[in-house]
Q: What sequence folds into this?
């Protein structure tokens, strides 16, 4: 039991080791700060979090320290008194802001950070409206050579050194440092050693001002036009919590969302910058049906009707000859619908887990300059490049007791065991062609081949029915990551005008009425499959729910 | 059910007197009005031969100003499109090809049909790059023609820069230094 008094309000912080910023946060009082970040070490260099601190003695007397102290560097303990609303504390904040703005160019209209900039926000809330600076501002030149994805507007920098500490403590290779001294201090790299590690993009989010910007997002949109949806990065089984920022059905950027259960504060550049495919022009736009040698575009009504009848006929003739390949890029709800549809046609129909892409080995950070991983591990990019293998496996286990893998499906297809094969994909193109020509030759033996994928491929050209798949940014549902954490994803952009989401296609094939409602389907899944029982409320919250490991 | 005869009241027009039946006083009255307008003050303007005198705060077509070197002055900050209540301004920003600026508009299109000429873009602009002019008689044969792009808006500036009437006055007193360089 430790009681801290924040602006005369007592708050119990228990036995936790908190600093004054965090303790005040428990009492609902926000102390502005730039250099302090919960995932980085404390330097107390920005001086924004200056507050008055004192101690309440056992006899009730309060002894205040004579000067203001940085809140990030001061531990909160039993009896600590924090004052943020006194004239002294507020004056200190105001003076700090005036000093930080001495050399800041105030080019907010052309700065990408405007709208989500802490310098703007704090100036508005704690600063002064005018500056007393009459001398010329120090304007160091821009450095667009900082990294492949990163550019530095050195004149906007307030030298909080968050980025420097990030490259030293989390990504490890310490590419960034502060060069020169005093008034001339600047962030820079060693010559010829740019910031190109796989976590580099995080310095853009860490930067409290518009100094470090992402070259991919530079000048694309003003941030107040973007609508943000909570989602999960699909590119590896870590399942980083993210924000998807989109406007007018175009995804402009992904940002990490803090989630201690999933990945912490950050995300990797592989996931962050791989968004081009969502709005790619060459995506499959609508359903196609083979007529003779050509595939022609047809209406959804006729595709659903024809496909359902063909599948039911095949299942009636011989249940064993019907199979569905459930992609680990499908959400749990979609996998559940596909499994239920397939098993509903015939209990003998088979379900296979789709291709699980694995690239190299788990990549852990921090890494030293030679690229050797260091302990303790602070971030892991997993080798398994799909978001929902765990979830799909559990659904397959529930429906047929075992998990059949993708190579078994290919063998069986090569041996001519299938009359009908429903193949779901939805893999981002960076993973490469997921069905090489040798595999497609085997698949071509299946008379009724259905391919549901995002991009044209050899398999798609061999198929009788082609259905467009949706990307993670277009659908609702949940993914189960490598550690069994179920997290919700929400749509940020609409699929093309002719497309339907994967879940909707399955619902239509099952002749269930209505639109996909992920929560309802999740409840249904939780009632049916014991592994998913913790999801029975249907609501996953922002941080997700851990399922039995 | 039809209306019963007893419920119906028949109204007859009032009987006209002799003078009224002559119609002559009424004709004289009409001619009087005609003559008054023939010799009175004329209000019709012979547009387009005659140009109207507009009030100085009349808000017409936009222009995109040029800087001293003849380049587009806009820095693509999107303040105008953010302020626009009709959402008629479409900008695509790009890194600028000039060293003294970081950003410039690669595309700048105003849908003049959608615009409500409220002048809020002009008020929002931090560098006086967009202004409303007194040009009011814009015409076009198609909707596409009325989407004014960057070149068209710059040409409006070229047309109006030396006329002395523009930009329009949205407030009393002097305009910014950018709009009145020689004052």
A:
């Amino acid at each position: 039991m430790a009681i801290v008094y924040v602006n005369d309000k007592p708050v119990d912080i228990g036995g936790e080791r908190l600093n004054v910023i965090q303790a005040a946060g428990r009492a609902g009082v926000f102390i502005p700060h730039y250099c302090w970040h919960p995932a980085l070490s404390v330097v107390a260099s920005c001086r924004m979090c200056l507050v008055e601190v004192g101690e309440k003695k056992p006899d009730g007397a309060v002894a205040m320290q004579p000067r203001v102290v940085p809140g990030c560097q001061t531990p909160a303990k039993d009896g600590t008194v924090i004052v943020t609303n006194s004239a002294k504390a507020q004056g200190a904040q105001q003076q700090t802001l005036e000093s930080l703005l001495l050399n800041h160019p105030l080019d907010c209209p052309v700065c990408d950070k405007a709208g989500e900039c802490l310098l703007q926000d704090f100036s508005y809330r704690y600063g002064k409206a005018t500056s007393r600076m009459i001398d010329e501002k120090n304007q160091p030149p821009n450095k667009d050579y900082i990294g492949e994805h990163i550019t530095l507007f050195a004149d906007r920098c307030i030298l909080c050194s968050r980025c420097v500490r990030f490259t030293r403590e989390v990504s490890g290779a310490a590419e960034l440092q502060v060069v020169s001294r005093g008034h001339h201090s600047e962030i820079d790299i060693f010559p010829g050693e740019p910031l190109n590690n796989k976590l580099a993009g995080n310095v853009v989010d860490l930067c409290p001002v518009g100094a470090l910007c992402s070259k991919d997002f530079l000048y694309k949109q003003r941030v107040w036009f973007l609508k943000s949806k909570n989602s999960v990065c699909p590119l590896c089984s870590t399942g980083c919590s993210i924000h998807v920022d989109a406007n007018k059905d175009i995804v402009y950027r992904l940002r990490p969302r803090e989630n201690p259960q999933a990945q912490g504060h950050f995300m990797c550049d592989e996931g962050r910058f791989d968004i081009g495919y969502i709005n790619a022009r060459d995506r499959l736009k609508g359903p196609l049906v083979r007529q003779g040698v050509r595939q022609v575009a047809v209406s959804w009504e006729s595709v659903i009707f024809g496909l359902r009848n063909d599948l039911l006929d095949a299942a009636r003739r011989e249940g064993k000859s019907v199979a569905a390949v459930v992609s680990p890029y499908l959400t749990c709800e979609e996998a559940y619908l596909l499994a239920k549809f397939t098993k509903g046609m015939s209990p003998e129909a088979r379900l296979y887990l789709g291709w699980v892409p694995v690239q190299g080995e788990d990549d852990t950070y921090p890494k030293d300059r030679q690229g050797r991983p260091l302990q303790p591990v602070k971030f892991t990019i997993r080798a398994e490049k799909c978001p929902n293998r765990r979830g799909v496996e559990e659904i397959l286990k529930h429906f047929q007791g075992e998990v059949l893998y993708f190579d078994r499906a290919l063998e069986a297809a090569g041996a001519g065991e299938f009359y009908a094969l429903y193949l779901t994909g939805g893999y981002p193109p960076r993973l490469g062609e997921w069905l090489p020509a040798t595999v497609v030759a085997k698949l071509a033996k299946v008379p009724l081949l259905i391919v549901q994928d995002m991009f044209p491929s050899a398999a798609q050209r061999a198929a009788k029915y082609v259905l467009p798949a949706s990307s993670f940014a277009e659908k609702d549902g949940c993914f189960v990551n490598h550690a069994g954490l179920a997290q919700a994803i929400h749509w940020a952009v609409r699929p093309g005008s002719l497309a339907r989401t994967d879940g909707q296609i399955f619902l239509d094939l099952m002749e269930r009425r209505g639109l996909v409602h992920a929560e309802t389907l999740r409840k249904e899944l939780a009632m049916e499959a014991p592994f998913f029982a913790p999801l029975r409320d249907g609501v996953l919250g922002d941080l997700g729910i851990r399922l039995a490991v | 059910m039809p209306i019963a005869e007893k419920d119906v009241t028949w109204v007859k027009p009032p009987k006209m007197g002799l003078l009224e039946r002559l119609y002559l006083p009424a004709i004289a009255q009409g001619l009087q009005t005609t003559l008054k307008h023939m010799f009175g003050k004329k209000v019709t303007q012979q547009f387009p031969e005659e140009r109207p005198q507009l009030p100085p705060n009349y808000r017409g077509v936009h222009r995109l100003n040029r800087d001293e070197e003849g380049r587009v002055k806009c820095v693509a900050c999107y303040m105008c499109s953010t302020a626009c209540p009709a959402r008629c301004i479409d900008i695509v920003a790009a890194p600028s090809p000039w060293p003294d600026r970081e950003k410039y508009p690669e595309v700048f299109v105003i849908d003049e049909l959608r615009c409500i000429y409220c002048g809020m873009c002009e008020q929002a602009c931090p560098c006086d790059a967009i202004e409303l002019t007194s040009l009011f008689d814009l015409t076009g044969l198609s909707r596409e023609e009325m989407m004014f792009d960057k070149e068209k808006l710059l040409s409006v500036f070229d047309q109006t820069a030396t006329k002395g009437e523009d930009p329009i006055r949205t407030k009393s007193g002097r305009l910014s230094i950018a709009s009145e360089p020689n004052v």
About this structure: Residues 376 and 393 of chain A are 31 Å apart (CA to CA).
